[in-house]
Amino acid sequence: GIRIVGAYDQTSTFTNTTFTTYGGANFHLRSTCNEDLYPVFQGVHGSPPSGYDIVKYGGANMRLNTANSLSGRLGIYEGWLRGVAQTNGSPFGASSAVELDPAAALQLDAVAGAANTALPDVIFRNGTPQIFMNGVAGGGSWTGSRLTRTGRSSLIVKGAGSGSALGANDKLFLASPPAVTNGMIPPYLAEYTADFLTYDGASTGIKRTTYTASDVNLAGPADRLYYGVAQTLNSSREVYAVRGELNGIANGVGGPFTLTIGSGGLSVRTGTTATKTIEPHLRFGSAGDREAVIFAGISGDSQTLALNGSLITSGGLTKHGYTTLLLNGDS
Questions:
Q1: Which of 145, 140, 155 is nearest to 120 (CA)?
Q2: Is residue 138 within 8 Å of 178, Cβ to Cβ?
């Protein structure tokens, strides 16, 4: 076995090795290596100064392939931590939380027959970390405690489907799921595809929402608007959420008008050919008091999302996504 006091910094691969940590352990996995940790983590004694029992950092993958007896708090500061589903036990042991920083990604690998593998409270903070649900046909599911937001962070959830979409095999259930309002959970939880999410405890848990309108002029306060062609807003109106695909929204005759977004969620794929522009003023929340959560572009997009009107909200602005957000209005 290997006894760790303080830190582990390696480029080698260890298999069938027991890691016993004392006073907390920092795993530094460099970008030139991938570590497969098959053994069981032995009991953790104490905590490092940061308050974590194990900290994973460095650009490489760290994969937990077996059930572990890890306890306490697990922090991911950089790179990917992969947990493999178990028929008995969990790769995360009895951890109280897995905490994700901005450059962190948590991958959950499904295994056929491994149902309801336990996942502790996932805490995301300081930017936009990711969870990747790597489901397989006939695979089991993961059952977590909750997804906990700190500060003005957001969380992107990827799936194993086409374009990293969540599919029927990507199953993440939560004991305390986010509240569903008008068919979606809060917009700071988003799919990698730029789509909004919902929660269905009877099927896959977290999954992409459906959309209820495709024309901004026909949508109402409870509608989740998805448009794939250019829109022209002809009068001020309210919708619940806006998801744009490679197009913008112009003002019609008599504008500028105001588009109110009840949930605060605006998400637009920007593509690679031209800036996508939304011209109307945007009010976030019916009373202008909701946090504006704006997703600009997916990975692979390169164009800017430009907002030409005023942003009306007392709830602040949170930007996530992969491309530039340009504020041209007097907000």
A1: 145
A2: no
